[in-house]
Amino acid sequence: MTRVSAVVPARDERPTLAGVLRPLLAHPMVDEVIVADDASVDGTAELARELGARVVRLPDNGGKAAAMALGVAAARNDVILFCDADLIGLSEEAITRIVEPVLRGDCAMFVGIRGRRSYWANRLLHFTPILGGERALLRSLWEEVPASYKRNFQIEIALNFFAKANGHRMDFTVIHGLRQVIKERKRGLLRGMVQRLSMVADIVIVSWRLYVVLQPQLMLRALPGRSYRSS
Q1: Of 54, 59, 145, 223, whose Cβ has the fewest other Cβ atoms within 10 Å?
Q2: What are the pLDDT digits (tens) for 42-66?
Q3: Are 125 and 209 spatial neighbours (Cβ–Cβ below 8 Å)?
Q4: What is the fold, at CATH topology level, of the domain defined by 4-181?
Q5: What is this structure's pTM?
Q6: Distance CA 100, CA 98 (A)
Q7: Mode of pairing for the β-strands spanning 87-88 and 179-180
């Protein structure tokens, strides 16, 4: 049976890490749990080892995407499950809902979206980018994303774009009861706001690069009788 490698990118996430690792370690479909430690200084790596996870570590702060890439490189399976380390409410049932569609071959990537309190906020997911750190995908899809797009918080938009651009099926579900500790609470108000603005900037930058610059080039390349030469 195809098994799953869970990769948890983490930087200074000791307070919430156990609540993420325990359901992953206990799940029958998860073959290994890898914590990709992004140069944490709060004992994140030590706690992960104590709980039974495998730890790989960046020597310097490289950002979320760099930690994810390190975890994928260390994984032994072809189905990867990414989970953020600052989750609250992760359950074995939620993990199953995320990984099963990929294990069955229904899609190449499946995303678990944290449930909003408002029904209409959830409905907007059908018209807004699918953003979520909890996603299962084929290793081959990860490898199709060029390295230049595997930067910080740009990676989720890039995964969505190249999945669709290369003809892969992707889907998502809303998982109620799953929430995330906000950056302002974890890092303090000022530092948290700076990190949030950095995340928003990453999303805007990669969306421009992909949907405004690259997508029209790909559409021109696909036109019959047209030759395309990259610049």
Answers
A1: 59
A2: 999 999 999 999 999 999 999 999 9
A3: no
A4: Spore Coat Polysaccharide Biosynthesis Protein SpsA; Chain A (3.90.550)
A5: 0.84
A6: 6
A7: antiparallel
